[in-house]
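Support case: user asked for a sample of complex input and structure output to validate their parser. Sending the pair below.
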Amino acid sequence: MLKIGVPSKGRLMEKTFDWFGARGVAMLRTGGEREYSGAVEGVAGVELVLLSAGEIPRELAAGRVHLGVTGSDLIRDKLADWDRQVADWAALGFGHADLVIAVPTGWIDVDTLDDLDAAAAAFRAAHGRRLRIATKYHRLVREFLTGNGVADYALVDSQGATEGTVKNLTAEVIADITSTGETLRANHLKILSDGLIHPSQATLFASRAADWQVAARPLRALAAKLALPLPPGLPGAAA
Amino acid sequence: MMADPGLSKAAIRAEAERLFAAFLAAGAVSVEADILLPAETLLDLYGEDIRARAYVTADPMAGEMMLRPDFTVPVVQAHMAGGAEPARYAYLGEVFRRQDHLDGRAREYMQVGYEVFDRAAPAADAEVFALFAGLLGDLPLRPATGDIGILMAAVRGLSTTDRRKAALLRHIWRPRRFRALLDRFAGRAAVPPARAALLARLAADTPEALVAAAGPLVGLRSAADIAARAAALIEDAEVPSLAAPEAALLYDLLSLEAPATAALAHLRGIAPLLPAIGPAIETFAARLAALQARGIDTDTLPFEASHGRTTLEYYDGFVFSFLAADPALPPVASGGRYDALTAVLGQGRSIPAVGGILRPGLVARLRGAQC
């Protein structure tokens, strides 16, 4: 049996169902409207597991699901050495969102990461504390800023309404996902010209830790339906 | 995650205690440190990067705490809180390092350390290095030394604005960023297009008018903060590039690698071109004399002016490490001078300080491989 983890609600679930449906793999919810159970038709031996999109990285890393659909941003943020824990099998072409760094539009002196670093140094000197960056993507943001030599900042956790933190004086800068930039503009924020951390989209991932021997046959059948080559480097999957 | 495969914790502790006893015999007083440290102090010193390297936990009352990533901060704090001067301290215990990669290094391991708080700086540098060299003398290790103080003195001595010097000094521990700044200040890299566009926009009106035109200003960074940086940017755009001989000297210094005595001769050769590094070179010379007096052959001792620039950003003078032949192994011992750190933690008071740590797990492993 091959277990595939799919987001349990909302547009991400609907679009995932559409994507598989268009390739002859029908995913459907079963039971009552509020019951999280589902089924897969069109390929034998595939079991649908409905999960929160945020938990799918962890389930893939643990090998409790063989395949999973989630945002490429969540995989990179939640898993250390993500590409050694999961294989990126197929980009699904929806759920596009960019993880970006944004600062107040009134910061006419700040356009690049270089400027951000200099502003952070001056802010610390003037205010006696580090410039706060609100985000829920701690690993991605820290690695990005370290790689670009930005110092004198502090990450503060924000699990939602991140664009409001600057106005609410709990942060000076934000790092968050945006698709159209509307919410950023409405909150008087602008994206740094080199502030794109990761262009995210819904992606089908394969776990490197799952037991592929029990799932080798359904994997081949599914790959044939989806017209995809087998994901490389899955122990036992080729048997 | 075995740090030292094949070695029991008891064997590592026995080695640690042997090294610790040698530090006590050298005149050190034993000092203890908490394992749970307030995160705030470490974050302020090392920046957000420390979160990627230390375990952070939360206490309902005390807030964020970190599992001790090294002993330097608690030992300096203990000394500043009431130690007599001069002082020598030794410590032994576990440190904890978060590993963000699948096959990372040890998550916890023993350290044994020796720290000297003494105003006779070159002599103290030599004391620490010679003590470590003596304890490790029977092992096949390669010593490496450097002196971040020379590089800092060279930056301070450049004929350019204080602002440019401060920018270089701030990034001295981030070699890539430092190099990019230096290339720009030396005129070797063109002004980036984004910066040129920004300067053109800033030239259009006063900063205050530009901020007002950009819509409501949100957040704590004020219009005054923005105007100050805008003025600084405009001013900086007028600053001429570093004079070619000065820039060449700094590039030369960054890549200087030679046996210590030869490095000293080379530095003395270039000192007339950059007189500001004179005192730092004399400190280096005094350290070499003190090392010779302790039996270290400085004609063969390797020296790299950039050594230690990528480790935790508090060393600001002499730095050293002892490395095993296997490049996959972390340094068996490392240390250096951190005068500025004592000033930050001492809230106005400071004392020259130098010290280092040994990893008894690695020492025991190498020693075991020898017999």
